[in-house]
Known about the structure:
205 residues; mainly alpha; 9 helices; disordered N terminus
Amino acid sequence: MSPMDGAAVSDAIIQATDALGWVGIFTVMLFTAPEVVLPFLGYVVYRGEADPLSVFSAASLGATLGSTLIYLAIRGVGGERVRAWVRRGSRWHLIEEGDLARVDAAFLRYGRSIVFFGRWVPTVRSLVSVPAGVLPMRLAPFLVYTFLGTALWHGVLFGAGYLTGSSWDRLEAYLGTYGTVATTLATAAAVGFVLLRLRNRVLRK
């Protein structure tokens, strides 16, 4: 990226932040990965174009609400309905009732840590809301650990964007690599699970 291009992108980010305000940032973070937004917000604060507390709070609260909406949707469906669906379709899909039991056991023992640290990992951060809603994990601890994990990861990204200043485009490349690696590992784990389950089905037949 040339200096001229970098300046143009920087000005566009600042103009977008001015136009959106904290309400816009809150709304965007309902469905946007923090790695895309928070370094830019840190850079905008570095330029002195936004209030750090306002943009950081809006982003963290918006992301927390986004995760909570997934949790509430799954909880509304109900864990018993999910288990009944698994039991009825065990011949046709690869998820078995024993899988849910293992997830339940893991969440009963490590649920708060899973919710907290899961906010740091792309793809996983949305998925952890699903077993939390199926179990269900109580709403109060879910909200607390979701917000704390989200705010801490946002602080890392926000601070990195602020500290790198005009070189935030380099940070974007590093975060892109991090997101790619994390997503690849999560995909590999899912593919591995499917292949292993298919193998077991074939052997049983």
